Write the structure tokens for this entry.
Amino acid sequence: MENTKKEFFPDGTPIDHWFYNTKVPSLEELGKQYILTQYHIFDNGKTYTKEIQGLIDMAAEQGGGVIVVPAGTYLTGSLFFKQGVNLYISKGGTLKGSDDISDYKICETRIEGETCLYFSALINADNVDGFTICGPGTIDGNGLKSWKAFWLRREWNPQCTNKDEQRPRLIYISNSKNILVADLHLQNAHFWTNHIYKSHHIKYLNCHIFSPAKPIKAPSTDAIDIDVCSDFLIKNCYMEVNDDSVVLKGGKGPWADTLPENGSNERIIVEDCCYGFCHGCLTCGSESIHNRNIIIRRLHVNNAANFLWLKMRPDTPQHYEYITVEDVNANIINFISINPWAQFFDLKDRDDMPKSSINHIVMKNCECECNTYFNVTAQKEQYDMEDFTFENLSITTKHNGYTDGIVKNMVIKNVHIKNVVCGEP
């Protein structure tokens, strides 16, 4: 049912009716069905990359339809979906990624704020319109082997990067529009779980996104990375990952704002979601240049590290603006965290530090227990902060952290801070 109440993004732009349509199509509505087992693809431990890709190609040639994963577990490497071909995972069905990196093609892709040669994801789609991935089943990255290898490599070389241990993402969609991912369990990614690049009108509905923090940490398994996208809805999802949950990316480097492959994220809504453990519930950075008109509302958060986390890179021009957080119940470490982020700092050929800014941040109607309420560092030579509004907040915290004057035009209305020590008033 569509919302009849007129709502607006933080800068006053009307929220389009598209955001209120949360219908998920039935299997029958997705077109001609291509069921794996009817094409000699079985639950027998064999890796069927070539056979499943052949089925995708055949479906595309015959006018489209839907690849159906029935009950059972079906093993594959990287798959490349084409226009008109959807994916449905049935109840009791699992599409499971290979744990052999040679089953993932190397291609030009977008990763960590740059375009380069890297490994493809398990599920890939480029330049498609109307791609749907849905069903009550599971897409499992099968990442345990690569997690162990990553931490072993870190023991040998503490400076190794994410890309030094070769591992694929779970889902990567680029240059596309009208994308729906719904009702699925998306779990155990080798690397980022969902990465959407240069696309618009994307919906994630009713998904359960998970990677473990113990006994083996699943490194950098972000739930949803939004990279140069607009009109993006995340609704009724559960996210628990060993890194950030919703991450806004867009580029990095001293000239990032001038490169055509980079850009802004605009008109993003995250609502009615629950969070388990993660490093950040909404994170801007660490590869991000411009985020505008972001709404985060009606969330329940349990045991996250940072609720709103703005990573400020000293080597990248960044502008975070018109971000509204409202109606949140949370148990977290930091309610808001704004600090310099200098990991792999590199000014390249630039002599001066690019200046960044943060403005029009609203946090209202929130009830939170946290270690630190206001974990914000002023760094005037690197970034400016102004026009923040904190309203109707009930915060129980061990450390307040707030200092007058850090933010220009800071408005505080009906904010109640209760300081506790070791859980006692």
Notes: The chain has a mean pLDDT of 95. The longest strand covers residues 290-312. The CA atoms of residues 385 and 407 lie 5 Å apart. Residues 49-61 form the longest helix (13 residues).
